[in-house]
Design brief:
The protein is mainly alpha-helical. It is built from 7 helices and no strands.
Length: about 220
Amino acid sequence: MADITIHASEAAQVEAASPDEHGHGDHGGAHATSTGLSNNKMAMWLFLGSECLLFGGLISTYMLYRGRQGSGPGPAQVFDIPLTSVSSFILLMSSLTMVLAVNAAKRLDDKNTRLWLIATALLGALFVGGQVYEFTAFYQEGLGFTTSLFSSSFYTLTGFHGVHVALGVIMLIALAAIIGRGRISGDKAEVVEMVGLYWHFVDVVWVVIFTLVYLIPA
């Protein structure tokens, strides 16, 4: 009877130390929280929640000041809706390529994962390039950062979002390079998915900004 008890105890210890069906043991991968999400995903969601508050404040400030252009040009005089619409479409299409990258990562298909990550980064870079061109055109038409309260709030809101997209592009390129070198430790699909969460977030925020800033007249 004592031998049976000892063997059962040893079997339980081996089972606890062995990896689960997803390849995560007690010492590998990210541990799950009480919500069912891993610590890494929970941290990403908390970060995105704080970003929601930040962008909420910037959007509220713009909505408060958008009618105060003073003697400077207003939105109707400088906005190029067709150009911004094309840039917005490009950014939204990048969400599709990001989904394809996540799906490829879940299939352990490194080649296609890198391909779609790079495609997403290129689309994001096109969006940032379009925004830089747009800002340059606005400045040449007399809408500088300090021209009015409207221009200050506009450049702060859209520029801050552009910085987020640029950071996302850097993360995508870096992730594609790391995957190519096989230097990701832990769950590779989860890492790609977390970058995808960030990318989808900046896309959704732009939909809100584009609607409120460009489509709804002041």
